[in-house]
Amino acid sequence: MIDAIKKGVKIFIPVLHEKHWFLIVISRKKDTIYILDSLPCKSREAVICGILETLQKLGKESIAGSQYICEVLDVQRQGNKYIYCPVLFQGEWIVACCVFSSSNQVHVFCHKDTLASVKPFCIDLGAKANSALKRCGYNQVKFPDRKVAYTGTNIKVNDSAFASMYFIENFGTSGEIHFNRFLEKNDEVKDEFIKDVKLGLLPYLLNHKNNTGTVPNEISELIKKNKRT
């Protein structure tokens, strides 16, 4: 590594930490370590500090006392920040989702009158997600054991499946601003929204290639004969 630092202007070090890859770039010219990480977390700081200390020692031994500094570069954050769990809960379609952020949380979308009965289910879901993630080596993720974030709606139970689809499509995106329509008290606004969703989604689902099938040849022949007669 000493020779590499002596010769290289920039040295690229891909690091696999807790099943996640991030990149360290060492710049000899600027005596700087650049960190590029799409999913930053506190547990990686120890890894970076270890590399920084090693470079400081190498610098004293071979690069005339260079003192490296650390700089975290802005990179596009990892897109998959949510795990969505659509659930048919007591006859209503709700969406419970695990949100990975600086403050990890379980977020639920359901009817305003349903929250009290949905909340214990979501807390239990968060606890199970904690256990599953820990088994996979993601020790830095922990969902709260009592608190649940919430988006409420007045959409009728019969239309909850369409409302849940819309929530999954827009939650955490630039389209989320339109999601305020769920919170409207005006039934006319809600009914118009559901009408739009039904007109757009229902024909798409019904006509999707995975939703079509063919009848047996014998039946096709009978249909053809019927048409002739």
Automatic annotation (TrEMBL):
Residues 1-147 form the Ubiquitin-like protease family profile domain. InterPro entries: Papain-like_cys_pep_sf, Peptidase_C48_C. The keyword Cytoplasm does not apply. Belongs to the peptidase C48 family. Keywords: Hydrolase, Protease. The lineage of its organism: Eukaryota, Viridiplantae, Streptophyta, Embryophyta, Tracheophyta. It comes from Oryza sativa subsp. japonica. GO terms for biological process: proteolysis. This is Os04g0639800 protein. Pfam families: Peptidase_C48. One of its GO terms (molecular function) is cysteine-type peptidase activity.
